[in-house]
């Protein structure tokens, strides 16, 4: 053995370095499913959030046999209203001019009428006055409709006899909110015009002065 090997053997060896300890993050185990929680399937979220929408749709559905007459010379407006109303189970009658509209109204006596102001032949205001003079149609709720600015202005001046007005273009919620304001759940007008005095009732004597 050489002196170098002897020196190397007797040389103190460095102590091994202490192992560094790194903190380990604790990961929580996934919670077991709650037996009381309802199981959800694809599409359940829409069902949960669609509850009010379904209730609103059901509320808008018509009583079977509820009929609405649409009098408008625009095929686009007629088709739009007809589709909206039929989707909610209303029976829809259609007329494209005032004369035909008056004839259908007298013959069918609908539960409600959408009446355009600007019509060929008899305009909406003339048709409105005729409907209000007729005993068969005098209590039928009538919603005037128009996209014409001048006709809209005239409506607020000559609206005697109309129950409501709707400006074109209109939305589905607007259409049904107007209907529901005028017809109750049975399709009966909410505000039926009543005579000031029942026919045949005796007049009340005047109070003494």
UniProtKB/TrEMBL annotation:
GO terms for biological process: phosphorelay signal transduction system. Keywords: Phosphoprotein. InterPro entries: Bact_response_regulator, CheY-like_superfamily, Sig_transdc_resp-reg_receiver. It comes from the Bacteria. Residues 1-66, 187-209 are annotated as: Disordered. Gene3D superfamilies: 3.40.50.2300. Residues 67-183 form the Response regulatory domain. Pfam families: Response_reg (PF00072). Residues 16-41, 194-209 have a biased composition (Low complexity). The keyword Transport does not apply. SUPFAM superfamilies: CheY-like (SSF52172). Residues 51-61 have a biased composition (Basic and acidic residues). The modification 4-aspartylphosphate is found at residue 116. The keyword Kinase does not apply. This is Response regulator receiver domain-containing protein. It comes from Thermomonas haemolytica.
């Amino acid at each position: 053995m050489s002196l170098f090997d002897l020196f190397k053997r007797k040389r103190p060896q460095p102590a091994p370095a202490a192992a560094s300890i790194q903190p380990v993050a604790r990961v929580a185990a996934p919670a077991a499913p709650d037996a009381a929680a309802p199981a959800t399937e694809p599409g359940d979220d829409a069902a949960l959030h669609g509850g009010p929408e379904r209730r609103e749709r059901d509320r808008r559905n018509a009583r079977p046999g509820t009929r609405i007459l649409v009098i408008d010379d625009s095929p686009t407006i007629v088709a739009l209203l007809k589709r909206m109303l039929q989707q909610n189970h209303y029976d829809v009658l259609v007329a494209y001019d005032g004369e035909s509209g008056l004839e259908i109204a007298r013959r069918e006596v609908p539960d409600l009428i959408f009446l355009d102001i600007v019509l060929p032949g008899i305009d909406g205001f003339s048709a409105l006055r005729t409907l209000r003079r007729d005993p068969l149609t005098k209590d039928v709720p009538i919603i005037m409709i128009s996209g014409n600015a001048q006709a809209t202005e005239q409506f607020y001046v000559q609206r005697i006899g109309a129950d409501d007005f709707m400006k074109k273009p209109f939305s589905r919620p607007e259409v049904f909110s107007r209907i529901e304001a005028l017809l109750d759940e049975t399709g009966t007008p909410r505000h039926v015009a009543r005579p000031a005095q029942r026919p045949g009732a005796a007049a009340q004597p005047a109070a003494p002065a």
